[in-house]
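Fold Annotation — chain and its backbone

Fields — amino acid sequence, structure tokens

___
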Amino acid sequence: MTIHYSIEGNLIYVAMIMLAAGLVLSLLRKIKWLPAVVFGAFVILLAGWIRRWIVVGHLPMQTMFEIFLTLAMVLFPIGAISRRLPGIRNPMDYVGDVIIGLIILFPAGFVFSDRMQVLPPVLQSPLFGPHVLTYLLAYVLMAKAAMYATAGLIQKKSVGWQPPRQPQADEVDGRMYVEQSAYLLACLGFPLMCLGLMLGSVWGVFAWGDWWNWDPKELWSLACVLMYAFYFHWRGYFGQKFLRANCLLVILGFVFILITLLWVNFSHFFPGLHNYVG
């Protein structure tokens, strides 16, 4: 475990303290304060992200420290946008953002080095920003979808929160709305994941001379797309008939993302063209 003494590192710790305070407030059922906590953490992380950009001279999305800083920073605006969608206006979604934010910030604050690195020639491309940022946005949406899917697994059959103008509320299983939220968020993240894969293929032509190089990162990125494609086909066919199976597939898709983001980058079992990430 490492402690960062940089300005960005200190801002991460401040944001973590704010989110931890938000978690305590949620346990005390003071949910009304969470929007302010979440917004304050976003402002702090945005300031750290901008400073990192100024110092390194390029978009701070190269090292794993920068990746997780960016993931945490974009989590909160994505949460604000997703909460405006019909079917996801759940006050408890703020609690989910607080928990996910703490989980994301922990590796940035205590695991990965905040040492700055020179951008290698292969990353000095106009596609660097769109390709990486598209994937990170997709990953955050899929993390929120997995959060709802987990809630769908552990929640007992009961009447839960639901969107307005929904008749016969007393006859509705609350788990259906949790699963529906996971589905909607996955629907938002999947096109971004496909776009990231396509942008990577175009970039591969300029960087390595081919659209597809059978690199482990490419293969696992494709596996993620196929996993979620299977989920959408499954749900399109069965609908909400098998709620637990739907939730498990969303969680399994996010496990594939974790393998792609972490294990493939660092494991000696997957040497490839993307192992410059550190």
